[in-house]
Structure to design on (236 residues):
């Protein structure tokens, strides 16, 4: 069974500073994918970044980067130069690799990030 | 716009009633997922369908049922509603990962959610 753990229920960051949101995972699969999603107060789920388990480079998307440490089973999200609009709930998620159509995607409990002006 | 359509966006009903939530996946996506998000909580996986067949089941109550139709839209039926069923219900769709190393990310594309309030 796959499990995602986010140990930071809430975090504060000063505007323009960088912040790291922690995510650890547990799986026996060799192939898997890791995601981060953002949920603003309006409620929609916004995809931010993806990391495949066989990707050698850490994923980056604009101000978002994923610090992937496979041996430690961690996939932390780094947001650089925080903006007020980054205030939201952030979820880490995992899917299995080869699925043949079966693909239960497991989400962590989320981290609520608040950016302070 | 994710391409996933959920209706209704808001629904208010009474305990004991039955409601149906509807989801149309992105064009070409065969997989549909349902998640429940209660107030200030994470996403609880309910059920997944792939091309009309149930493929994975989470902590879905027996009062809840779902199906995916031949045109790939899906419906989540919630019956004998209780106050605790009040939540945001998300539908998501994705492509299936066919082989290990498949370059598709398998990213979930979420609808805007259906907010159910049970009074």
């Amino acid at each position: 069974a796959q499990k995602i753990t986010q140990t930071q229920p809430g975090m504060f960051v000063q505007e323009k500073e960088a912040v790291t949101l922690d995510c650890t995972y547990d799986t026996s699969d060799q192939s898997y994918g890791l995601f981060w999603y953002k949920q603003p107060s309006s409620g929609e789920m916004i995809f931010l970044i993806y990391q495949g388990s066989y990707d050698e480079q850490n994923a980056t998307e604009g101000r978002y980067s994923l610090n992937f440490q496979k041996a430690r089973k961690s996939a932390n999200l780094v947001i650089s130069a925080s903006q007020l609009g980054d205030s939201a709930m952030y979820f880490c998620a995992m899917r299995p690799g080869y699925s043949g159509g079966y693909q239960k995607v497991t989400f962590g409990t989320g981290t609520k990030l608040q950016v302070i002006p | 716009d994710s391409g996933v359509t959920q209706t209704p966006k808001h629904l208010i009903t009474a305990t004991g009633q039955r409601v149906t939530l509807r989801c149309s996946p992105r064009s070409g996506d065969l997989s549909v997922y349902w998640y429940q998000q209660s107030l200030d909580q994470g996403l609880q996986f309910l059920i997944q369908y792939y091309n009309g067949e149930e493929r994975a089941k989470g902590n879905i109550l027996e009062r809840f049922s779902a199906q995916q139709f031949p045109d790939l839209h899906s419906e989540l039926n919630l019956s004998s509603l209780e106050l605790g069923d009040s939540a945001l219900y998300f539908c998501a769709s994705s492509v299936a990962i066919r082989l290990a190393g498949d370059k598709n990310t398998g990213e979930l594309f979420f609808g805007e959610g259906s907010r159910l309030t049970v009074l």
